[in-house]
Batch of 4 targets.
Target 1
Amino acid sequence: MKKILSLLLACAMVLSLAACSGSPAAESANPNASSAGTESSAPSSNGGASSIAVCIASEPDTIDPALNSAVDGATLVSHLFSGLAKWAQDDSGNLVIVADAATELPEGVANADGTVTYTYTLKDGVTWSDGQAVTANDFVFAWNRAAGTDLAADYGYMFEVVDGYAAIWEMVKDEQGNDTDEFANPDATLNVKAIDDKTLEVTLANAVAYWDELLAFPAYFPVREDVVSDEAWATDPSTYVSNGPYTMTGWDHNSVITLEKNEHYHDADSILMDKIEFYLSDDQNNMLTNFQNGSWLLIDDVPTNEIANLKANYPDEFVVAGQIGTYYACWNVNENILPASSTLTGVEAEKAKAEIRNAMALLLDRNYIVEEIGQAGQVPASSFVAMGMTNPDGTQFYQTAGTSSDYDGYYDVSVDALEDNFAAAVEVLKKYYTYDEATGKFTDIPALTYLYNTSEGHKAIGEYIQAALSGVGVNMTLENQEWNTFLNTRKNGDYSMARNGWLADYNDPICFLDMWVTASGNNDIQYGKGAHKDLAMYSLDLTGLGYEDIKVENGTWAQTYDVLIATIKSCADDDTRYELMHMAEDMLMSTGCIVPLYFYTDIYMLNSSVDGFFSNPLGYKYFMYCTVSE
């Protein structure tokens, strides 16, 4: 079954950008995340073989399909693995989901208990790169591994729609009914089984509109049990066994990853590019130099101070594409930002911190960021769920977020509102900090650190935030880390405030919301963890929407937000489900931990000699169908 993402084209039209696709799933190493495509010519010459050298990011954190949570890693994985489904372009250039390792993408069969069962048949000739046959049981193993408690993968929650997931993660309750640290069903598995070597059956907890898109997501790709039993399997070409269009033949760490065409791939005849060299760099000047001298034919980032010149001098090769994503700063919810003199503790302290964080968000001029730093058509953001996501009636989700009738979202980001926002923020901060009327600054705000990964764009935004907050007396230090170190530092919560970005995983607002459940590996803010775990301060009342048993007053994050997300995923009524999703975003934004800055566009440079390039709404870039003219 093919599913055309007209939403993507709508987003591109909304942004009036020159491109053909865009938007990512986890996050990009670059401030201007990536996708879209242009066309050019014919083959390349290299003794009859074709090759292309590109640079999409620096050293990936991981290229294990279950563990990866970054756009650059996912691009690599998508060239190396074949799932049941994949992203492709139809004859008109529209992005579609089509069968890959499966013979077809069938309709599900609804069961009497509300579950839905799908049965897939693997194509003939689907093999691993070492020649062994890919079996249905490889998918059973891979999905249970990715969803399981032992691996605790960042994207494990992507399997929440599969029947059995809830039992896997159910915890033993104590006498008060609270979760302990012990799993209630240590032997539980997903409701997925191999009927025979070529037939896979999976049962979902309920109907899921975006199921086919999940099948094309890297976390759903197969891996082989004997291969991944070596924990270091995904770090070396000699142990990296895959089943996709390419095999990894070289990895000079922090330099280049080399992929070569996999002759065992079931659709090898369609693969036009024989060799892809992914050069690893986060130095934008180095990237631009290598593009300009013809060494690298695509670069996924450029120096911010060169954007105006590149627009003028490379009008056909400098690409600005639409994208469904949000660039934001995030706070560690457990960071103590109250003055040393404060006597507030527990729930009262967290309520104060939430008010402070929301106030500080008002101090930032998003129009300055997009016009003076971004310079690529980004749109100031006042909500987390990105522009391009729509409600059932076709209206923009972000335009119906929040409660104000005067502006979209959760605060007014217009140029005219900046002065009033600043004044309002100062009045809130006066409630908690000592204000020096002579200097117009607060004197006892604790020192903060802003964490970002190597990039001139991220650095420039960090410097702006530093300067804006210093205007009211905040002493903020900038801390730069290289990409994979940064990912793990932020994931572990070892920061005060950090740069962040999220791009749509699939065509539904829930992919911006379910990442913040307590157990999510993408929950970098640390909601429901550490000191925040036991704070009973959130309320949830769904009785008015027909859920008579869901009413919580002064509950924890797990008792409220996690329950809300689970309810959304089991809801079959679109209008109710979207109302619930707006409630979830309201709850997120009330914490002040998410500070939206702008809705993404994607900028990159693509040599005019390249034809056949495309990218999907998740930001993954595809080079297997590329040709390069002389």
Target 2
Amino acid sequence: MDHTDMESWTGGSTLAASASIQEGDSINTVPSLTRHVAHQADEAQLDDAVWNVLLTSTCRDDFRTYLRQFQAGKYRLAAIERAITLDDNPNDDDAHYPDVISLLRSEASSGNPSAQIHIGKALSEGIGVDCDQGAGERWYRLAISQGETRAKINLSTSILAAQHTETKERIAEALQFAQEAADSGDQEGLIVLAIEKLRGNTVTCDIPGAVELLQAALDAGWGRAGLVLARIFMQDQLVGSNPAFADECARRGLAAGCAEAAFQLGIFAERNAMDATTMAVAKHWYELGAAALEVNSMRQLGLLYLRGEHVSKDGALGVMWLKRAAALGDVTAMRDLGITYYHGVDVVPNGTVAFAWFSRALAAGDKRSAENLGDCFKLGIGTSPDREAAIHHYELAAREGSVSAQRALGIALLMSEPPLRDPVRAARWLQLACLQRDGRAMAILGKMLEVGDGVPIDLGQAINWYRASAEADDAVGQESLGACYLRGTGVEFDPAWAAHWLGLATRNGRKHAPFLLGSMFHHGLGVERNLGEAAKWFRLAAQRGDPDAQLELGRILVAGGAEADFTEAEKWLSEALQAGLDDAQPLLDKLHDHLQPSDSSSRPPSAESKGAVIRQIRPQPGSEFAVEPSE
């Protein structure tokens, strides 16, 4: 790789003071910052030759591969535009990149050190060719023998990236390469050394020493040192948060030519943006970075335009910047494009395009996109519905720690038809999500414990999970807990608590909760019987699509005797019948025959019938799980 991955350590926990090399064995960690003129192969000439090979290609992957290979190539913008243009008309059978690999091999074999670095990188990272790290390392070493500093950086970072499986001797050699690169005036070598001091894995953890190194490098005009310092001083666990100093370092890094520092300044500004004026500052930094083809700035600028938060919303511009970032290999931008087309975020919804972007993101290593693909397979968006494929993709994301994917997997396993249905396995995944306080997972696990689906019946535990879910403001948990108080399941019958939780569930959009509130008024459960109030709640539930409410509202309207009520009664009873409630048919028959049914709903229920009603009131079977699992 050409650059050290900063995100791999800036988001981590406190760095441990452990080392695989003792302090006495470590390399010199105070490099000379004098810039040396080192031998440089004609990179531009090689870039021209590669571009000439690709010029007539109509294969989109050729240009994406070029962008991975030549991260400082002068044809990057042209390659981005070609990749985007060919996205809509791919011709992957016309791949020219094998010819590029042949060119690089030929040039490398003839002694071109720049070509040796590029073929080493291609083999080490599997860029346009099958990955072969051993062969890649041999080419790097050949370039090193010709004095190529870039080869030392690439080989050093490659070895250190696999430090947990490398020998002490190879790690020492990697650090030596980084030291030699730094001594020769290459800022990437110093960055590698500083980060290893911060991590404390290969050398003794020395945060002050790392900061001193980076500050000296920044003073000498090495822009990436400013970027790393900015990230360090935004983290409390490293040196104590100092946002003002972090901002200063990022500005100095940008002034010294580090385009990624513009992205960091944009992030700083966006975190504090309260209105259009302050958000404009963030937008300004992202635009600077995007103009320099800095991928993170492109992605963030695209999201700003799509969200329209304190800036003018512009779906076309948003998609353009996301596509440019995606062409540069940014998997988050690929996933964001999928979400944009899936939900129609200021663009026309397009399930096929969304599915393609999610698939591309997953193929590029973004496991989070597996959850989005699970949704596509479950709902048949952009592809044919495939429950088994949905479960497979949910599990990919669930194993990466996604709580929403763990919940979605549990739901899919619970709601599928045999042989895919597996409530025992569903319970395990839901329990994992519950441990992370996922409100919906807690409600579903509570229901499984209440009815004994995949787990033994345990009403006490069911109530505990319902309560935890309800207190986390999950509407399903609130509805289920309220229903338990109304039925006296696992708790004492308590209409006050029933009304409290059912009221919250209704406010949060559940359809069955207002039916249960209406039932309290219909049957006088803890309140005075009031058919008008019952009809109000039934109507709300019916409008939300609850079949029980549609049936009961139809009964009340028919019993009312007014001609106008018959029309509405017919509407609701027909919908209840269509939903599978056969009790609606006799009432519809009477309506159609212009018969008046006896007004049984106006007579107060007996104490015995009240008890029967309490026992019968329950959430619709499966309704707790009829929810979208993912955002």
Target 3
Amino acid sequence: MQNKTVNNVRVGRFELLMDAGFGAQKAGDILIRAFARMGKYVFIEPTIPSEISPPIRTRPALSGVIIRVAEFDLANIGNNTDVILASHEVVLDRRLDDEEHNPNCRVLLDMCDKDLPTAKYDKVLQRVKDSGLQIFPFEVLPEAQVIIKSLAGKAKNMYYIGMLACIYNAPEEFVINEIKLTFGTKLKEEVFKKNIDLFHLGYQYARENVPFAYEIKNASGKNGHEKILIDGNSALAMGVVDAGIKLVSGYPITPATSILHTLAKVFPSFGGIVHQAEDEISAIGTAIGAYYAGVPAMTCTSGPGLSLKQEFIGYATAAEIPLIVIDVQRSGPSTGMPTKTEQSDLLSVIYGSHGDSAKVVLGVYDIIDCFYAPQLARYLAEKLRLPVFIMSDFQTANSYKVLDKPRIFAMEDSNDIPDFILEHFGLQRLPEHIEMVRTEQAVPGTPGKMRRITGLNTDQSGTVNYFSKASQRSHAVRNEKVHCVQRALKKPELFGGREEGDVLIVGWGSAKGAVEEAVSYFQNQGLAVSGMCLRFVNPLPLMLKEIFSKFKKVVTVELAYGDPYKRPPLAMLLRDHTLVDVQPLICRVTGRPMTPRAIETKVKELFHAAAA
């Protein structure tokens, strides 16, 4: 097309919006793999409806992907969208409600349904124009419509892949290769050829009719390391394999289920077993029983399943049986919004079981953390004989990232955990001897080493003991295990290197990417702003109070609810731990990820208020 405007940018973000069940996520997977193979960095967020098979052309049916592409490493989904491609006006209207588009966003709207009696194209087109966005209505080429009709209305996502690949200057051969890898052995040859034809027609349409394109350079400064593209749940699954865990017991629950899916494919090759239990309670019971018998085991779940597991979590603490739990957080309470992200399980993980239930809680920053966290969790669980939690969330679980191929260790004995993993998580190696409530901790069947396992309170010999001194000692010993970890924690990294200043932004887990990018923005503006993100949220590092004292304001950012009468979980924990007036800056539960711009806006408000 003549007079096509080519935008040379370092980073871009676009969206594909369709009805559920028509392949938007699959299209996104194909595109990011093609971009990654070209040498670009990518970050993806799927938009998945909570309902199963919602009616098409309804607002709840919105399904899609948000893709960020860059010539540099990416740690979050970014702020706003440059290009939206929508399959019809209903999904576009729904997505515009989220207000995540740039002021000059370009909208490509398929007019395929314009003649339907229920169509409201005029209204939505006017909304787009009133918002100041650029609108580009289009119709699928007639020959493509014939192919789509022959495929029972499916495969239009291939046409859209072609359009977006052309707009973002992805060579056809790269994308076709990924389509072949995705569908080549699953479709009949005739059906596969039609899919490829649709891709070519979409590419051709965009080349000849779309008046804009984007050019993003391939990544520069390659470090010579082999790169991989992987999502958070797959990284957790492969980390489980590398950690030497031999049994994973779970019950299907969004968004943790794909951990089980991945392991079901690969685990048997490494001597592992995936057990799909009949419910959440039996899943954790199986994991505890396996570890009692000397087989490294874990269970994975999300919020509702966590609630059901609480009694067994307390049992593992009292019985001194190692336990690893992966909690992939989602919006709550109850069923909530299963396909939306949140960080609201923190208090239920730390304090959920009745009584004083000691445990260690890790929050993964990103996908590389997902791979190494199971090794650290196994080391801690076996060393302390306590429950250890790995806390992820929907965003991390489903986001793909290009990263250096992790170092493979294939751990057999948890005491041999590599130093680089401990260093990665900011932990010194624990003391060789850590006191237990019961002196005898042998694996069942060890000659002359019989021991009693019970949730009742016992003395050192393992005999049930209800006397006051025995109870006090048991509590003290269990908590001292956690204190051993706390004393071994190193000083958390301060983003930007500034040790003192006006504002310190504190997050945990997956907030890291947004916090780090926001801090970089402020330091480029010459403002005294630093950031910190915690991996260990229980116990917390001992030196936090000293760090906080060097900043005029300490604020938290977390995807958990708070208001003037109710502090969100992280702010509550930090205030209790440090007695510093930590204030929540962002405590929202919209189901959307944390963005750098949201943090930047709120911090600017702090500076304006201070200047007033």
Target 4
Amino acid sequence: MCGIVGSWTPRPLDPQSRDRALGSIVHRGPDDEGRLVCGGVFLGIRRLAVIDLEGGRQPLFNETRSCAVVMNGEIYNYRELATSLKSAGHEFSSDSDTEVAVHLYEDHGEDMAKPLRGMFALAIWDRRRRRLLLARDRFGKKPLYYARTPDGGLVFASELKALRPLLESAGGRFELRPQAISDYLSLGSVPQPETVFEGVGMVPAGHVMTFDGQKLESRRYWSLDDFRATRRSTGRRIGYGEALERTRELVRESVKIRLRSDVPLGVFLSGGVDSSIIAHEASAVGDGNLQTFTIGVDDPRYDESDVARRTAQSLGLRHTVLPLQVTPCETLLELVRHYDQPFSDPSAIPSLAVSQLARQHVTVVLNGDGGDEIFAGYRRHLAAHLAGSLESLPRGWVHGLAGGVAAVLGRMAGRRRSRIGFAARWFRGLSLEPSARYLAWTADKLQEADKKAAWCGPPVRSTEEWLDRVRPAGLGALDTQAATDIRVNMLSGLLVKMDMATMAYSLEARSPLLDHRLAEFVVSLPAVHRLRGWRLKSLLRDGWRDRLSDEVIGGKKRGFEIPLESWLDGALREPLMDTVGSDSARVRNYLDGSLIDGLLEGGALSDRNRPTLLYSLLVLELWLREFESTAAMKESRQAA
């Protein structure tokens, strides 16, 4: 795991800008630094040594040194690939997983990413062909930002804070993109592959980009939707028992291959089924030195440490409970500065804290990320599956009836996450068009009608319009919901949260349930297998029923949550009112003050997820102030 930067510009960039870029991501790679400068071409890396600690220094080269590679991430099947490449005549200078990438490029060119199993963002400079290649893993676990320079060049980096000095050295600048602010207020994050800055994007997940010094081209090499059951016209129908057995085999192999490491390794273990399965399989194939980590919190509503401790004991694993002591204001400011873009998933706060604690013990952790998205683990997946059964009914009749029922249930609901609260939201979503329904069933923040009444910024398109393009066509109701979750919430939310939180403390996080071979198999199964008996994640629960305890298999789903409502009424109330509540708040340049005041007072949008909407406004306000402060400091330095 590392952080990479680079450029190809008509004139070489200022060496100091390269220093600043690499210096800004030391947290991603504290162990080593490497550079390649070849005229206007620059590759740089900060390395976190995980595999081949001494021999894996980057950049790494092919035999003739005509091609160089820098990579952030891990290629888990590197041993098998290296054996095959050596049989084909390639000579290796290291035992690093990164080196297979440059030899695969020699043989396969732009198709070099197809054989890779892992999480990666890489850059390859081909001196002989005068070509720069950028590639990103299938799900987008590892980030890679890029921008064109005013003189027609290209700069790229693992984080925006590292991209900025490179772009500014080439005469470019970071300018806010109002569309991103609008989308953030609906989604809670800035949707990829765009960013909050004009002209700055991300290499799309599952894509390879090539640059010849003038023209930048992008090509997709993989899409999970190609494997979904409702798009498969041929193939044998697999029975449920066979599906369970094959799922167990694939999960076991996915965990095993992710235990390859030359540094200490552990597992983030909660009380849930996903991470418990990872721990179970890791204990079966590990070397006996595996550690598990759980956070302990004082609030029993969110604490899962007792369940996790009992699971670890049953598996014979060394277990550590990491006491989570968070100062909301301080951690929130740290988050705003570190994440580079507005990001309002509150679980990023404990994610930062637990990553800092775990890094004191290990360098690599396995987690259960992706289990909900791949195996249908959210209540909205049940909602979508049920809604699909109503598609034959007249749309106007369904919308009208659902809206009326939603209004009645909304008045009856107490807690938002109660059964009545969920039913009210299901009916409200059912009364909306598909993209608005998606927003209601996920973030449940601002929708197009809200923005039409309250948006004060420059003209923007609706977030629903963007979702209309992102949502896949030709799939069943469950697959449409799950595929959109992967393209939106997982890509721009979950994976961003985990990468930035763990890498802030030089901790590598691996997600076995996001192995692409496993995912391809699971989504090829019919919806009735993934929600058997209308149960979430039935494949995982039934597949490990005789291997894990009843309290894990039958336990209620809990996210990595914080007492957000209590914080907003307590520790965060004063900063919220001093910033968002101020007449000079920056967010009031984008939203009408009457809506903001109504949200602060509790009267506006009472049927929405008000706590996370308020938190989103607070994060955005702090981020806008931080952006202004950074810009002012830069102007001050230039004036001096």
